[in-house]
Amino acid sequence: MSEKTLILAVETSGRTGSVAVAEGAKILTERLFSGKLRHSAEIFPAANELLCQFGYKAEQVKQVYVSVGPGSFTGLRIAVTMGKIMSLAGDCKIVAVDSLDVVAANINGFGGENGDAELIGVILDAKRSQFFTAVYENRDGKLVKILDDCLMNSAEFVERFGCKERHIKLLGEGLVYYKKDFKCEGIGFFDEKYWWPSAKNVHLLGWEKAQRGEFEDALSLQPLYLRRVEVGKKRKS
What we know:
The chain is an alpha/beta fold.
């Protein structure tokens, strides 16, 4: 695979959105959307502007990396739809990246501010007092997922991971309003600057998958919701 392969990375799984443009493993630029939940309004204009900044056109993109969930229903649908359009309209391959992994990638090898934590947990708000979560441990400087993506409420998470011998630290957008619900002996929290997903992490993880040839079929690609979307029944007249 050429180091000059033009790549577009998209992150719209949470409140904040962003896009990044890269040549192979090298990030050229990243742009955060101007505000919360601005995905549908800004994703296409931002992508086009960043590509034009480096003299590229959308049809020159050879790979698109998208964060497919779990996360915001609307945000995930926007990113997946964009990936499908780009793939079906031209010679562009899709890589799907787990949204919880994207957040976990903010903590590179448990360095820096990790302190005494042996585990990290990602917490995203799934509404109705539930959270999308996954847990990782450090194995020789690499994050390894030991709890696969799942739905839990805060009490279940605290019962399973609080007050244990192995100290865990949490990050993720689900803590913005519910941090207090996870406070327990043995559970710590990363600084809020680490809580947010980013397109640059989508590129980081997507590039690794692309090197292994892990591409998606545009027609069958779907967001990862972890639960069925409930549709209201029509009332009988």
